[in-house]
C-alpha cells in the first residue's frame, strides 16, 4: 500500500503500529479519510478494527506512526478528553443511553454536556436547543418517540438515540462500531439511510461485519487484516479480491 497524503484529510494514519505483549495488533497501518467522506471498515475478528478506533480516540498510544486530525493536529500528543473536544465522537457497539430518561431528554442532556451549563438558563438559547433536539430526533427517526422512556425503545432505536446523542455534540468525525449488530432487517436498512444522511455534514467511519449493510452504505471500503490494510475500494472491488475472499469473505 502506498502512503496516503496528508493534505485535505479529516483523518490520516501513516505507518501506525502497536504491540501488546509482543503481539502486533496494528502493523504499519496507513489510512486517510477525506472531509465529508463515509468509510466502512471490515475485516475478520482480531484484524485490529477496535484497536484502530482506540488509537484514533487516544485510548491506546501507537508505538510508532503518525495520526493526524484535520491535516495538522497530531492526535498522538493528546488524551482522550482533548480528542473528544476536538470533535471526534465515538459510538461503541452496545448502546449506552440514559434508560430512565425520555428520548428527548437524552438528546437534551447530550446537548447540555456539549455546552456551558449556564446556557440552559437563557430562554433564547433554550429555543435554539429545542430546535436542535427536534432536528436531531428527526434525523435519527425518533420524533414520534420523543416522550417515551429510552428503556422502552427497541434495541435498534436505542442505537439511533445514541447516534443522536453523538450528533448533539456536533462532531466533525463520527466513529461507529458495529451499529447494526442485533438489529432487525428493517432497522438495519434504515440505519444505512440514516448514516448516509449524517455523512452529508460529517465524516463517518463505520466498522461493521454485515456485508449487506456495508453494500447499502455505498461507500469506499477498507479491509483490515492482521493490523494492516489488505484491500481498499468499492464493495464490488474488495468482494472480488482473492486475498479478501481467502481471509474474510470465504470463511
Ligand atoms: N489490550 C490488549 N492487550 C492484548 N492484546 C490485545 C489488546 N487489545 C487487543 N488485543 C489483540 O489485538 C488483536 C486485534 O484486536 P481488535 O479488538 O482490535 O480486533 P477487531 O478487528 O476489532 O476484532 P473484532 O471483529 O473481534 O472486534 C486481537 O488479537 C486482540 O486479541
TrEMBL record:
Record-linked InterPro entries: AAA+_ATPase, ABC_AA/LPS_Transport, ABC_transporter-like_ATP-bd, ABC_transptr_urea_ATP-bd_UrtD, BCA_ABC_TP_C, P-loop_NTPase
Keywords, comma-separated and alphabetical: ATP-binding, Nucleotide-binding, Transport
Ribosomal protein in keyword set: no
SMART domains according to UniProt: AAA
Domain ABC transporter: from-to ranges: 11-251
Short name of any one Pfam family annotated for the protein: ABC_tran
Record flagged with keyword Transport: yes
Molecular function GO terms recorded: ATP binding
NCBIfam families per record: urea_trans_UrtD (TIGR03411)
Protein name: Urea ABC transporter, ATP-binding protein UrtD
Organism of this sequence: Chelatococcus sambhunathii
